[in-house]
Amino acid sequence: MPSAAAGPPLPPGGADDSLIGISLGRRIRAARTANSLSMRALAAAAEISQPFLSQIESGHTMPSIVTLFRLAKVLGISPSDLLPGDDEPEPIHVTRRHEGEFVAVDETDDAALSRIISSGAARAATVQEYRLGRAPYLGDWFESDGENTVYVVSGTLTVTLEGRGEWVLGPGDALAHPGAIRNRWSITGDEPVTVLLVHARTS
After folding, report:
1. pTM for this one?
2. Stretch (H or E) spanning 71
């Protein structure tokens, strides 16, 4: 299991990205308070340090995807509930290719990167783009609520569903599965992989 002792700092000069970090930190702090958890207790349960959690809650550091999933699991909520987004979004939303900060999936030097394309409590689904490079695996095993659809844009990806089997996906291939099934991604071949993940809430 990858370490969760550090995370990527917010880039200087990026007002929108800084606001994302602040919003995410506030949501984590609010959920922790609602669960009557101290910062020390949440940090210990999520396998991170208390100073690191403090940096996340203050908006100074963005947690990796692995850390975000751990925090959400301890807090008893979906990871998508912690992701920033408009509670009352406009019906039409455009995300340009240069918009949205890429966040490391875990804390290794060659970690895959992810950015949010569309999210928000009022939207039925969260869409994320993943870019996998040198690392053979995309972080840890993952599970969530709702339904997931994995769509491969480029490269070759192997998706393993615990106890169900594994599937090799190429460009244009897609796989849908319940988020509650533990799943893991790995690169097949030498080419970088780009993936779209659509997470649809069931309630």
Report:
1. 0.67
2. helix 65-75
